[in-house]
Amino acid sequence: MKLSEQIEDKFTSKLKKEDLTDSEYISRLIENDLDSRIDLGEGFYYNKYLDRLYNQENKVIVLTKIEREIVITLIEYRGELVPVDIITKRSWKKDDVSIYTFRNLIKKIRDKTYFKLIKSRSNLGYSINFEPNEKGLNQVKLK
């Protein structure tokens, strides 16, 4: 692979500064890339560094600001049940959100992903399909 002179200089400087070989540095980059992925099942994943949701074909799923906040809130709870009032306060930044509006957004997220991504428990709350990887990616803090 051919790098521009400017990138080559930055790369060389970084390696010297951190006392790394080329392969050690590339290994770190790959490890960071893999650690940034939160597996949501069915081939879907959330990249916490890029702050984006991807489908099975590695294409970005476009979410509205509120849909994104709902997904992030559910991910931060690591698959545990989250009461609706907590989700609405964090997503809308207010308390008086209609349950019908909330359910409609859950449906839209499910339509963009897959139905079982978000699990609901009547009168209790919602959770997300959270599948930790082999490194135990349960320590999720997105904000």
Quick structural gist:
With 143 residues, the protein is α+β, with helices and mostly antiparallel strands. It has five helices and six strands, in the order H-H-E-E-E-E-H-H-H-E-E.
Description:
With 143 residues, this protein is of the alpha+beta class. Helices cover 44% and strands 13% of the residues. It contains five helices and six strands; from the N terminus they run ααββββαααββ. It has helices at residues 5-18, 22-35, 65-76, 84-92, 99-112; strands at residues 37-39, 45-47, 52-54, 60-61, 118-121, 125-128. The strands form two sheets. Strands 1-2-3-4 form a four-stranded antiparallel β-sheet. Strands 5-6 form a two-stranded antiparallel ribbon. The longest helix has 14 residues, at 5-18. The protein is elongated and about 55 Å long. The two termini are 35 Å apart. Residues 134-143 have low confidence and may be disordered.
